[in-house]
Amino acid sequence: MSAPKIIIIDYGFGNLFSLTNAFRFLGIEPIVTSSISNIKTADALVLPGVGAFDDGMMGLKKKNLVKPILDFADSEKNLLGICLGMQFLFDYSEEFGKHEGLSLISGAVKRIPDPKQNKNYKIPNIGWSELNKSKHLKSWKNTVLSSSKEGVEMYFVHSYVALPENKKNILASINYGSNIITAVVQKNNITGLQFHPEKSGPEGLKILKQWVIQIST
Amino acid sequence: MNTTFKKIRIIPRLDVKGSNVIKGVHLECLKIVGNPQDMATRYYNEGADEIICMDIVASLYGRKNLLNIISEAAKNIFIPLTAGGGIKSIKDIKNILRAGADKVAINTYAVKNPDFIPKAAKAFGSQCIVGSIEAKLIEPGKWEAFTDNGREKTGLDVIKWAQRLEKLGAGELLITSVDKEGTTKGYDLELMNKITQAVKIPIIACGGAGSPKDFYNTATLGIDAIAASHVFHYQKHNVKEIKKYLKNKKINVRT
Lengths: 217, 255
Fold this sequence. Notes:
The structure holds 2 protein chains of 2 kinds. Chain A has helices at 16-25, 36-40, 53-62, 66-74, 84-87, 201-216, and strands spanning 6-9, 31-33, 44-47, 78-82, 92-93, 99-100, 107-111, 125-130, 132-133, 153-158, 160-164, 170-176, 179-187, 190-193. By secondary structure, chain A is α/β, with parallel strands linked by helices. Chain A has a single domain (6-216), classed as Class I glutamine amidotransferase (GATase) domain (Rossmann fold). Chain B has one domain (9-248): Alpha-Beta Barrel (TIM Barrel). Chain B has helices spanning 36-46, 58-61, 66-74, 90-98, 108-112, 116-124, 158-168, 189-198, 212-219, 230-233, 239-248; strands at residues 9-17, 20-25, 28-34, 51-55, 81-84, 103-106, 129-139, 142-147, 152-157, 172-177, 203-206, 225-228. In chain B, strands 1-4-5-6-7-10-11-12 form an 8-stranded parallel barrel, surrounded by 7 helices. In chain B, helix 9 links the parallel strand 11 and strand 12 (225-228). The longest helix of chain B has 11 residues, at 36-46. The A-B interface holds A 15, 17-18, 21-22, 25, 50-52, 118-122, 124, 126-129, 153, 155, 157-158, 175, 196, 198-202, 204-205 and B 3-7, 9, 44, 47, 49, 74-75, 78-80, 97-100, 102, 124-128, 171-172, 200-202, 222, 224-225, 254-255. Chain B: Belongs to the HisA/HisF family. Chain B: Pathway: Amino-acid biosynthesis; L-histidine biosynthesis; L-histidine from 5-phospho-alpha-D-ribose 1-diphosphate: step 5/9.
């Protein structure tokens, strides 16, 4: 079968080069665009992002991308949010005041509580952490993590954490000092990764590849 | 595994001049050691956690060859890449990120225009802005910040400048000991310890690695990341060996 048409949404935030490069490595040429008509024709959407929540949402709004993304999510085609892009999936974030997100998954985004117990754990969390399977879940079968082993290490850069209302939306989390931080969320066709799979070495690429396989089947 | 400490990142650093990776002692007496793309790829395959790539003559001559180097180096590596050298504007940062870097390291221009750091942090997020400091011991327990590979004095006290950079919005600090750089005699532990105590943002220690033990001694300070070039460039030890050594000594590293 032909390669799926993957669109990376370009709204001025995020390292699009790395993400494009990672998909290319997997044999897929993604389209980087902010064109609404183009988004409608995609098989799957990637919502990337780095930086502050409010600035990012403003970026989406300025390009009139909020409705097209919500419509796309309704269509039951696959949507992947990465880092800030994952945080957008929730109802609101408390970064620099309360700001509304896309409300595709119920829950809030809040600052990582001070990991008091050990000053070695700083905020922002910059670095590699091990993914643990959520206790609400039997296995990672049929998810983006189905080819990953528990304890696999991913690269994180963030100061805020997503708190889904329904814990069953959490596939994986990390331990960060005394905190348990949401790392992977899924609700039907919508998946979110707090870490950067495109920057997490061969294991990160494996997760992206699994997502591509999901789209194609 | 020891989970009370965060995983320490091991970061090979490539100093480039023209199209070559070079290496010197105290940031001088430079010798060519390879090409950036091959070396970045080799370190990625060895299990490096990140790569730092610095154009060391950019701020001396205002050259702009860093973009080409970054876009070549970034092609085959899927780990974070920090680039630095000659950054003077928001546009410079945009171009470097577009070429494939994830973070930028800023030294000279931050010293001349401290107000640039908050502007850059606002535009790209603090996580993207690495404050780079070249430190020289000037009297016992006191270091001065230098620019242009340890050639130009700034009159700034390293500890105070580090704290100022944190306040201005830098997300990480790259601390290079000019005294130790290229000597393979070990990191400036006193300096790294003082910096770690003085600021809350992640610290990348750089300059002086010669043996696995040097990495260990630095790791025990509670530092976040350790950069090295000489030991890796001359293949005295590869990244995998260093990590294995640290892991055996109960230091938490990515496998």
